[in-house]
């Protein structure tokens, strides 16, 4: 499924337990940073790995989407917020496999 964020050519980089998704398109760029965590149960020794978003700097991306008409007003900001979170998480999870 293509997303409006795919135009930014997302790149995923891993470094010491941190995963960064970088979005770039021309002069516009943004990043979402995740921390990789490992949780192990006390009674059952199952290990579960997950990612927590610790930083998101996407103001240039949002500005570009506003300029091209993908965002028409304040009501769209919540949709874009969810789109950014979901898209960046998907990028991290697909790179993790």
Report on the structure:
Helices cover 30% and strands 38% of the residues. With 97 residues, the protein is of the alpha+beta class. The longest helix is centred in the C-terminal third of the chain and has 20 residues, at 77-96. The two termini are 18 Å apart.
In short:
This protein has 97 residues and is an alpha+beta fold. It has two helices and four strands; from the N terminus they run E-E-E-E-H-H.
List the defining traits of the structure above:
97 residues; 2 helices; 30% helix; 38% strand; elongated
- SSE pattern, N- to C-terminal: EEEEHH
Shape assignment: elongated
Can you list the strand order of the major beta sheet? Answer: 1-2-3-4
Radius of gyration in whole Å, from Cα?
15 Å
| Mean of pLDDT | 90
Oligomer: single chain
Number of separate strands: 4
Report, as a whole number of angstroms, the end-to-end distance. 18 Å
- Secondary-structure class: alpha+beta
- Poorly predicted ranges (pLDDT <50, ≥5 residues)? none
Q: Portion of residues in helices?
A: 25-40%
Count of individual helical segments: 2
Task: Summarize the biggest pleated sheet.
Answer: 4 strands, antiparallel
β-strand percent reads 35-45%
SSE map:
Blueprint: E1 11-15, E2 18-25, E3 28-40, E4 47-57, H1 59-67, H2 77-96
Antiparallel strand pairs: 1-2, 2-3, 3-4
């Amino acid at each position: 499924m293509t997303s409006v964020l795919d135009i930014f050519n997302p790149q995923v980089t891993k470094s010491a337990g941190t995963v960064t998704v970088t979005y770039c398109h021309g002069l516009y760029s943004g990043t979402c940073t995740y921390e990789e965590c490992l949780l192990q149960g006390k009674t059952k020794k199952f290990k579960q790995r997950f990612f927590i978003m610790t930083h998101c700097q996407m103001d240039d991306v949002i500005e570009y989407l506003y300029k091209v008409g993908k965002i028409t007003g304040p009501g769209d900001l919540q949709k874009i917020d969810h789109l950014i979170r979901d898209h960046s998480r998907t990028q991290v999870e697909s790179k993790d496999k």
